[in-house]
């Protein structure tokens, strides 16, 4: 069997980096999107990869832009032939109470966190159906399950991902494709580092596990959902939240 190819959006973020590294570590050819491939962070990230002995491929793409996703897909198909696994992990926050939220903050968060899942997945779902194999993993959030102060935009986008996941799972199951969400709680990345210290301490105080999660704890679940072993898990949501929110 040829190497499976995984596309991870937001692969230079905290969670995305760990997912890329772990997928590469178990033998996938991994491609990630980045908004600005010239970014200094990416150069140092590449150096770390070389030291660790593997390579992550890069493609420039703003995943909130449908046209950019069309171009990205033809570039990837020419270079890698196929995409077997998609991890929709790109995400942003623009927090504000609704009565103070500007339309730009609403739209940007919906575009990057939710519309992007359509923009990216739409490019590859047809060929996955033809090849009768695919794994689609959408990174949602506990705040899409519970709602969160100041995050009507983010909570709506992440809740929307669950509907997208369940509907696409039903459409795709007979074609060997699984579609699942992972809903992380609070994970130690630049996204949560941006939360003011006092607020973060109050959040951690509410987590029964007594700590935030690590990106690797999310990545290990993503690797499992990408594997053949998970083929009967479809349309599911896997929470990773240290018992912050327990649900059936
Ligand atoms: P980071 O801020 O570390 O990473 C976010 C990533 O998204 C970056 O790689 C960024 O790329 C990318 N991105 C942002 N906008 C775009 C865009 N328009 N097109 C392409 N890529 C884009 O966040 P995390 O690693 O913490 O978050 C990863 C995912 O996990 C997100 O979807 C987030 O909502 C979700 N999540 C995170 C939690 C946490 O506690 N950290 C909890 C629950 C869910 P670039 O740097 O190039 O801009």
From TrEMBL:
<dbReference type="GO" id="GO:0018454">
    <property type="term" value="F:acetoacetyl-CoA reductase activity"/>
</dbReference>
<dbReference type="InterPro" id="IPR057326">
    <property type="entry name" value="KR_dom"/>
</dbReference>
<dbReference type="InterPro" id="IPR011283">
    <property type="entry name" value="Acetoacetyl-CoA_reductase"/>
</dbReference>
<dbReference type="GO" id="GO:0042619">
    <property type="term" value="P:poly-hydroxybutyrate biosynthetic process"/>
</dbReference>
<dbReference type="Pfam" id="PF13561">
    <property type="entry name" value="adh_short_C2"/>
</dbReference>
<dbReference type="GO" id="GO:0032787">
    <property type="term" value="P:monocarboxylic acid metabolic process"/>
</dbReference>
<dbReference type="GO" id="GO:0005737">
    <property type="term" value="C:cytoplasm"/>
</dbReference>
<keyword id="KW-0560">Oxidoreductase</keyword>
<dbReference type="InterPro" id="IPR020904">
    <property type="entry name" value="Sc_DH/Rdtase_CS"/>
</dbReference>
<dbReference type="InterPro" id="IPR002347">
    <property type="entry name" value="SDR_fam"/>
</dbReference>
<protein>
    <submittedName>
        <fullName>Acetoacetyl-CoA reductase</fullName>
    </submittedName>
</protein>
<comment type="similarity">
    <text>Belongs to the short-chain dehydrogenases/reductases (SDR) family.</text>
</comment>
<dbReference type="InterPro" id="IPR036291">
    <property type="entry name" value="NAD(P)-bd_dom_sf"/>
</dbReference>
<dbReference type="InterPro" id="IPR050259">
    <property type="entry name" value="SDR"/>
</dbReference>
<feature type="domain" description="Ketoreductase">
    <location>
        <begin position="4"/>
        <end position="190"/>
    </location>
</feature>
